[in-house]
């Protein structure tokens, strides 16, 4: 099942692989928003099925 995360800044990621989604969101959070330590659980809580 495809899942999607949308960031308030306009960035989004959609994929059917949870590990890809988690990695992409963590990278975005760190590189764009200087947010360290975003967990897998936090990412998946924000993910919505599409």
Structural features, described:
The N and C termini lie close together (8 Å). The protein is α+β, with helices and mostly antiparallel strands and 50 residues long. A hairpin with a 5-residue loop joins strand 1 and strand 2. Helices cover 46% and strands 20% of the residues.
Number of strands: 3
Strand content: 15-25%
Question: What is the helical fraction, as a range of percent?
Answer: 40-55%
Q: What is the gyration radius calculated from CA atoms?
A: 10 Å
Q: What overall geometry do the principal axes of the alpha carbons give? A: globular
How are strands sequenced across the largest beta sheet?
2-1-3
Report how far apart the termini are.
8 Å
Indicate how many domains the architecture comprises: 1
Question: What structural class is derived from the secondary structure elements?
Answer: alpha+beta
Integer average pLDDT = 98
Low-confidence stretches are none
Query: Mind summarizing the main beta sheet?
Result: 3 strands, antiparallel
| Tally of helical segments | 2
How are helices and strands ordered from N to C? EEHHE
């Amino acid at each position: 099942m495809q899942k999607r995360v949308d960031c308030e800044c306009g960035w989004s990621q959609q994929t059917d692989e949870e590990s890809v989604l988690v990695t992409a969101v963590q990278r975005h959070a760190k590189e764009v928003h200087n947010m360290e330590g975003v967990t897998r659980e936090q990412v998946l809580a924000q993910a919505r099925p599409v």
